[in-house]
Design brief:
With 238 residues, the protein is an alpha/beta fold. The protein folds into two domains: 129 residues, NAD(P)-binding Rossmann-like Domain (Rossmann fold), CATH 3.40.50.720; 101 residues, 2-Layer Sandwich (Dihydrodipicolinate Reductase, domain 2). It is built from eight helices and eleven strands. The strands form two sheets. Strands 2-1-3-4-5-11 form a six-stranded parallel sheet, sandwiched between helices. Strands 7-8-6-9-10 form a five-stranded mixed sheet, with helices on one face.
């Protein structure tokens, strides 16, 4: 495949390494230093785009790829209040889009474990649940997109929790998410159920960006020649 990398930071470079090792070609690399090259004309030189930028630019970058008629995979976080808008635009125009808050195969298995554990814990109000996430200091959004996904999965299955907050809270109606930024820290997510009797915890710790990058390339291969809106559940067959 011919791939456009919209965002060529540490993640973009890790994606490039894996993509090229699998025989793909990188035909466009967009960084903050060459934004003038981020055009529909240049994007059309690719067969799929992989977008990892920031909350302020992600929506426009994704829509530009869709307008160019190029399938796009995005892992940017912090912009999801406009996700439904992009989804409807994609479906109405018979375009192709895949979003994931985390492309790691391990994290997506972790998501499935989190959902099942929440279902098992829902009938037991003696257990309170909380989340924590740790990332490197260059990560601008908090909580992480992965933590928000975990929180929303829990809220869907434990009705006594009415919403999430990004701080420690004594309000039992709220799901607390504690965010910490420190170096080096590729990413750790913990879900903890606490009672007076015992604790139950599930933890995922990333050791490098390679798992995220490999998953993003796998997602790009999956949407090649497809139409519609997809997620990593589709890629992994969950």
């Amino acid at each position: 495949m011919k791939i456009a990398l919209i965002g060529y930071g540490k993640m973009g470079k890790a994606i490039e390494e894996i993509a090229m090792a699998k025989g793909h070609e990188i035909v466009l690399r967009i960084t903050i230093d060459n934004l003038e090259d981020n055009t529909e004309e240049n994007i059309r030189k690719s067969e799929v785009a992989i977008e990892f930028t920031g909350p302020d630019s992600a929506f426009d970058n994704i829509k530009r790829c869709l307008q160019a008629g190029v399938p796009v995979v995005s892992g940017s976080t912090g912009w999801l209040e406009r996700y439904e808008e992009l989804k409807q635009y994609c479906l109405a125009g018979d375009k192709t889009f895949l979003y994931a808050s985390n492309f790691s195969i391990g994290v997506n298995i972790f998501f499935e474990v989190n959902k099942r554990l929440a279902e098992l814990m829902a009938p037991h109000p003696d257990y309170d649940v909380s989340l924590s996430e740790t990332h490197h200091t260059q990560k601008r959004d908090a909580p992480s997109g992965t933590a928000i996904t975990l929180a929303e999965q829990i809220l869907e299955r434990i009705p006594r929790k009415k919403g999430w907050v990004n701080h420690i809270s004594d309000d039992l109606d709220q799901l607390s998410i504690f965010s910490e930024r420190m170096d080096p820290a590729p990413g750790t997510h913990q879900v903890k159920y606490h009672s007076a009797i015992d604790d139950i915890e599930i933890i995922h710790t990333a050791h490098s960006r390679q798992g995220f990058a490999a998953g993003a390339v796998l997602a790009a291969e999956f949407i090649y020649n497809k139409k519609g809106v997809f997620s990593m559940k589709d890629v992994l067959g969950f």
